[in-house]
Automatic annotation (TrEMBL):
<dbReference type="Pfam" id="PF00795">
    <property type="entry name" value="CN_hydrolase"/>
</dbReference>
<comment type="similarity">
    <text>Belongs to the carbon-nitrogen hydrolase superfamily. NIT1/NIT2 family.</text>
</comment>
<dbReference type="GO" id="GO:0006528">
    <property type="term" value="P:asparagine metabolic process"/>
</dbReference>
<dbReference type="GO" id="GO:0050152">
    <property type="term" value="F:omega-amidase activity"/>
</dbReference>
<dbReference type="InterPro" id="IPR036526">
    <property type="entry name" value="C-N_Hydrolase_sf"/>
</dbReference>
<dbReference type="InterPro" id="IPR003010">
    <property type="entry name" value="C-N_Hydrolase"/>
</dbReference>
<dbReference type="GO" id="GO:0005739">
    <property type="term" value="C:mitochondrion"/>
</dbReference>
<dbReference type="InterPro" id="IPR045254">
    <property type="entry name" value="Nit1/2_C-N_Hydrolase"/>
</dbReference>
<feature type="domain" description="CN hydrolase">
    <location>
        <begin position="1"/>
        <end position="246"/>
    </location>
</feature>
<dbReference type="GO" id="GO:0006541">
    <property type="term" value="P:glutamine metabolic process"/>
</dbReference>
<dbReference type="GO" id="GO:0006107">
    <property type="term" value="P:oxaloacetate metabolic process"/>
</dbReference>
<keyword id="KW-0378">Hydrolase</keyword>
<protein>
    <recommendedName>
        <fullName>omega-amidase</fullName>
        <ecNumber>3.5.1.3</ecNumber>
    </recommendedName>
</protein>
Length: 273
């Protein structure tokens, strides 16, 4: 099936972001994409100072638009970090997924919050405003089962291993790595998750805006189960298309059967809830 990643250039105007995102989703569907993904923080600038201002309930304005366009185009739509979600007085970094009938299939709250300090380069603390999610998020399509993470979640190999154990063949990470961590680890982490678990990994970033307070690396990417980069964007706004070949995935798992060769008598990773 054809997967499209929409690397959107995000502005400070929520309605404009929504309209342009939906327009690009429709364009991708017209070109044959069956699954379309939007980037982390596609409807608001990324930064702790913006989260409360742009926060919405789910369902709400942004998720209603995503539901409508998914139904109109008859596609599966991964809504990036569609919005900072407000629920019970707390804010979450949340990704929603909608099916071809417009129904919400999954809602992933970012499990691992981006709290880092690289002296002289970048300091960021999502936990100043956001609360962490406490669950894994998977959904089924006729094509395959998909596991969801958001940005920093990709650094935690155990999460991807759980998804693989549960039968996922594609992992999608809406993310916004920055100009320090992006060139160092963005592609490396994707290839690692893909090879370790013999599945496809797709990441979708906002386009780069050098004038933003947080400058995203861009380079939305798809990696196959052999660890090969099969599609990759630059820094600009664009839509990346690629075919997800599940026959190739099956062949790789048959040729190098690491998933059945794990020594579960010696070690293991388990999902606690």
């Amino acid at each position: 099936f054809c997967l499209a990643l929409i690397q959107l250039r995000v502005s400070a105007v929520k309605l404009d972001n929504l309209q342009r995102a939906c327009g690009l989703v429709k364009e991708a569907a017209e070109k044959g994409a069956k699954v379309v993904a939007l980037p982390e923080c596609f409807n608001s600038p990324y930064g702790t100072q913006y989260f409360k201002e742009y926060a919405e309930k789910i369902p709400g304005e942004s998720t209603q638009k995503l539901s409508e366009v998914a139904k109109e185009c008859s596609i599966y739509l991964i809504g990036g970090r569609s919005i900072p979600e407000e629920d019970g007085g707390k804010l979450y970094n949340t990704c929603t997924v909608f099916g071809p009938d417009g129904a919400m299939l999954a809602k992933h709250r970012k499990v691992h919050l981006f709290d880092i300090n690289v002296p002289g380069k970048i300091q960021f603390k999502e936990s100043e405003t956001l609360s962490p999610g406490n669950s894994f998020s998977m959904f089924d399509m006729p094509y395959c089962k998909v596991g969801l993470g958001i940005c920093y979640d990709m650094r935690f190999a155990e999460m991807a291993q759980i998804y693989s154990q549960k039968g996922c063949q594609l992992l999608i990470y809406p993310g916004a790595f920055n100009m320090t961590t992006g060139p160092a680890h963005w592609e490396l982490l994707q290839r690692g998750r893909a090879v370790d678990n013999q599945l496809y990994v797709a990441t979708v970033s906002p386009a780069r805006d050098e004038k933003a307070s947080y400058v995203a690396w861009g380079h939305s990417t798809v990696v196959n189960p052999w660890g090969e980069v099969i599609a990759k964007a630059g820094a600009e706004e664009t839509v990346v298309y690629t075919d997800i070949d599940l026959k190739k995935l099956a062949e790789i798992r048959q040729q190098i059967p690491i998933l059945s060769q794990k020594r579960c008598d010696l070690y293991g990773v388990e999902m606690k809830k």
